[in-house]
Design goal:
Helices cover 33% and strands 18% of the residues. It is α/β, with parallel strands linked by helices and 730 residues long. The chain has 5 domains: 160 residues, Rossmann fold; 117 residues, D-Maltodextrin-Binding Protein, domain 2; 97 residues, D-Maltodextrin-Binding Protein, domain 2, CATH 3.40.190; 96 residues; 189 residues, no CATH class. The strands form 7 sheets. A 7-stranded mixed β-sheet has the order 2-1-3-4-5-6-7, with helices on both faces. Strands 8, 9, 10, 11, 12 and 18 form a 6-stranded mixed β-sheet that branches. Strands 15-14-16-13-17 form a 5-stranded mixed β-sheet. The longest helix is centred in the middle third of the chain and has 30 residues.
């Protein structure tokens, strides 16, 4: 009997101990509800995660929609994602177990969990270990609640405080008794100079695209706004220690376009690049075409038809009146009506009243037609008329022009619509290009078109003035410039907040415009209000050939395109000049002026360039052993232009060919005895070594006369890593 009583007494005692551990006291329950309301609010769905049985009714969960999760049992299905969690655990190992359970469950969203809030209920003595583990997993919006019989304690810690050393240590931990907690705020605006790893490939290149440079500028402003230290890394650095850069706690930011990669999440877009269609300008009509174009085709058909009908009506009436059939009457009536139509006069008025009425009505009609034609004729004789040309994407689809674009643009940015006849026509016209050299055909030969981004169009500047730009994004996606981060990183909220702020305030447009002006002023352009400019269009295509021996004569083959230089005068507000301190200069424009010229000398330069033809049945001699390669031509400069000292031509091989030749300078000399001619230039060669002979497209011309010099650039080439470096200085 005593043994049974002992067992009965032990069971109630054991149950009492369990209730003390798992069922909170009234003090804890009140504290739990208070802290939950401060963290989650009263409308957010909260997931309660436990690794032991608990009496849920004692937690008073009536304020929020909630989900109960038992980590000891498998999760079968779920109705959606949850970002707010309450985790109950007694140790760091229990926290790790709960974390792995959640991270691989269907309720977990790896891209948004860091935006949620976490409340950890634990009696673990060392709360610093709990904070440290949660920070390593990228969870920073966390509060630890330590239950107690009398006064529960709330712990908070900022990983970016100075004492915590950017989350690598857990020294500064704030603790408060629950009844003294008034608010809990997770918003961080000061990161105390903690590092931000900016990953990019062209950080040191001063000639990177303006959009990329603008992204770097925004990162700089973000670092100032949130007190962050920016460290630059390249993709090569990532390969050395990728694990560290891609830890959940590391603030690693990429700059690039918004492409659908699951490995990263994108911020709000800070720049939008539209695509434009480049088509030839309408062709100017000849004099005969202009006279015919005054009326549309439909109106001409109606005029001719009305004249023919009137002729037959008058002829039939004349037959009815005379009661005789005469073919000559048909000819006379036709001649009279043509005279009435063109000159408004008639040689003989019919005696019949019916015929007279018809003639009078037709004369009134003819006067109106003549008046309309004369008014249009005045415009045709005073203003050049152009044909309709290509004014829309539909016109381009029905034309015979091929469309130049990059394969990536065609594959990824065109909207796929297999039911669209327009898309099928457009897709059949695309031709892949890797450089901008083919774009010359649009304005010069009018036999092609192109699909390029507005950024590329702006960068080409004055290269393509004689083109029509069609802005139509109905079948082409835009390119959004964004910042990318690891999925689930909390700092993405700060970046989005900054971007939305500058967009809503209008600061973004001003920052972009100021950056564009500063970019071209510092690296490429010098603004000049009254500049004399020579624009040269050089049309020359060639390919590499075999290496030549010394003193061998070369007769280059005829190029695919006419290699005749044509010159036209123009004035532009922005003139490019070479920076005096630069050691590398990438040619990006067709216009450049280093000094002003007198009118007569400039005219002589024009004459020389107009009369100069390259690859035109000339015997050119190559000297392989000279330090600077020189091609001499005996009869390029005539005696009538003796003020011209020399013409220097910078050429560049095809960038697609693998060769040691990075730069070659050709100088056409008038005075062959001038030994100091090369000293007038500062020429920078990328690589030294053997230079095989190349038939190469000309990309720049420098003309020297007296103390003046003009450098004129032409054909534009793009390369992933351009090495063409040259400076001309007097």
């Amino acid at each position: 009997m005593s043994i049974w009583v002992l067992i009965v007494l032990l069971i109630p005692f054991h149950q009492t101990i369990l209730c003390t551990l798992l069922v909170p006291t009234e003090n804890f329950s009140t504290c739990f509800v208070k802290v939950s309301n401060l963290i989650f609010g009263k409308s957010s769905t909260v997931a309660y995660v436990f690794d032991k049985k608990i009496d849920v009714s004692s937690l008073n969960l009536r304020n929020n929609p909630y989900v109960l999760i038992d980590v000891t049992k498998p999760m079968i299905n779920t109705g959606g994602y949850v970002n707010h969690y309450v985790i109950s655990t007694d140790s760091v190992n229990g926290l790790k177990k709960t974390w792995f359970y959640l991270a691989y469950s269907k309720i977990w969203n790896d891209k948004s969990y860091a935006l949620g809030h976490f409340l950890v209920v634990s009696s673990h003595k060392n709360v610093s270990e709990l904070f440290q583990y949660l920070w390593q997993q990228g969870i920073f919006n966390v509060v630890i609640l330590k239950p107690s019989k009398t006064n529960s304690v709330v712990y908070q810690s900022d990983p970016y405080s100075i004492q915590n050393n950017c989350g690598t240590q857990t020294i500064a931990v704030k603790s408060n008794v629950c009844k003294f907690i008034k608010s809990i705020i997770f918003k961080r605006t000061n990161f105390n100079s903690c590092p931000l790893w900016l990953i990019n490939t062209n950080i040191e290149n001063p000639y990177i695209l303006p959009s990329l440079k603008y992204g770097l500028h925004l990162i700089h402003l973000i670092s100032l706004n949130f007190n962050i230290t920016v460290n630059h890394y390249t993709l090569a650095d990532i390969r050395l220690f990728p694990f560290y850069l891609f830890k959940r706690s590391t603030i690693a930011v990429f700059i690039g376009a918004n492409t659908p990669f699951n490995e990263f999440v994108s911020s709000e877009r800070y720049l939008i690049h539209n695509f434009v269609w480049l088509v030839p300008l309408p062709r100017q009509m000849s004099a005969i075409e202009a006279l015919v174009h005054i009326f549309q085709l439909e109106l001409w058909i109606l005029v001719i038809a009305s004249t023919i009908v009137t002729v037959f009506v008058l002829w039939l009436l004349s037959i009815f009146v005379k009661e005789k059939y005469f073919v000559n009457d048909l000819y006379n009536i036709a001649v009279n009506l043509i005279c009435v139509t063109i000159w408004g006069t008639i040689s003989k008025v019919p005696k019949n009243n019916g015929l007279r009425c018809i003639i009078i009505i037709y004369m009134i009609y003819a006067v109106h037609i003549q008046t309309a034609y004369t008014s249009g004729l005045i415009k045709a004789l005073t203003v050049p008329l152009y044909d309709h040309g290509i004014q829309s994407v539909n016109d381009l689809a029905t034309s015979t022009l091929r469309i130049y674009s990059h394969n990536y643009t065609v594959s990824n940015l065109l909207l796929a619509d297999i039911n669209s006849t327009l898309m099928s026509k457009i897709n059949s016209k695309f031709v892949n290009i890797t450089s901008a050299g083919n774009l010359w055909e649009i304005s010069t030969f009018r036999n092609s078109s192109a699909l390029v981004s507005e950024q590329l169009l702006n960068q080409m500047g004055n290269l393509f003035k004689s083109i029509r730009i069609i802005r139509n994004n109905s079948i082409v996606r835009t390119i959004d410039e964004v910042f990318k981060m690891r999925p689930g990183h909390h700092f993405l909220q700060n970046i989005n907040y900054f971007i939305k702020t500058i967009f809503e305030s209008g600061i973004n447009n001003k920052l972009w415009n100021d950056m564009i002006i500063r970019f071209y002023q510092q690296n490429h352009l010098t603004i000049s209000s009254n500049a004399e400019v020579l624009t040269v269009i050089i049309l020359c295509q060639a390919s590499p050939s075999s290496t030549l021996s010394q003193d061998s004569l070369v007769s280059p083959p005829q190029p695919k395109l006419p290699a005749v230089i044509t010159v036209e005068n123009s004035v532009a507000p922005a003139i490019m000049s070479v920076p005096s301190t630069s050691k590398e200069y990438i040619l990006l424009s067709s216009i450049q002026e280093l000094s002003k010229a007198k009118s007569q000398n400039r005219q002589r330069v024009n004459n020389v360039l107009k009369d100069t033809k390259f690859y035109d049945n000339q015997q050119i001699k190559l000297f392989p052993d000279s330090p600077t390669r020189t091609l001499q031509s005996q009869n390029q400069i005539t005696d009538s232009n003796k003020d011209i000292d020399n013409i220097s031509i910078l050429v560049q091989p095809d960038l697609d060919n693998q060769t040691e030749l990075d730069l070659l300078e050709i100088i056409i000399e008038q005075n062959q005895n001038n030994d100091n001619l090369i000293d007038d230039y500062q020429t920078i060669h990328s690589n030294a070594g053997s230079y095989p002979n190349f038939e190469i497209p000309i990309i720049s011309i420098a003309v020297n006369y007296g103390q003046n010099q003009i450098i004129i650039n032409s054909v534009l080439h793009f390369s992933a890593n351009p090495k063409t470096t040259i400076l001309f200085e007097k």
